[in-house]
Amino acid sequence: MSKLKKVWNEVKPRGGWKYPAIIITGAFVGLFIYTFIASRAYSYLSDNPRTCVNCHVMAPYYATWTHSSHARNTTCNDCHVPHNNIVNKYYFKAKDGLRHSTVFTLRKEATALQTIEASSQVIMDNCIRCHTQLNQEFVNTGRMGFKEMKKMRGHACWDCHRDVPHTRSRSEVSTPNAPVPMPDTNVPDWLNTAMEGK
Description:
Layout: H1 3-11, H2 18-38, H3 59-66, H4 76-80, H5 86-105, H6 117-130, H7 132-138, H8 146-151, H9 157-160, H10 189-196
């Protein structure tokens, strides 16, 4: 008998537990699928900046980015995820996304969001990656990465370029009437129509 079959024989429900186990498993699978679709988890696989405003906390950051010079040539992921290989890119996105969703769900975010050490390193590495010619031929700042800068007590790119691509004031009051694309509703059209009639 194969090892997998032995394990299945040990864990499979017996007797009267067979049907309740199927129902409970089906409920968990259904809840997972519903949560995956309702939270638009599939959208996080793309590089579309609209994905960031799935969380309303990110609206001012999206709004300030759209008015920056970076909006013409970059997406959020160009700055905020590593680009050394595709595995590292999606691993970092998953890890950082899980951290964000936990913080936002528990309402533990600060009024002005701050990057953590790992994110700061990725952002600075991407500044250097995109502005290689400027950083290495003209001002020589791109010859050291975030770790070297920290060790030598130097400055990160955003210490001087604070308003690029987000403004200095990073709260919801900094962009009071900014047009931000809100996520599509999960409410079906037939229910909206029924509610409008009342």
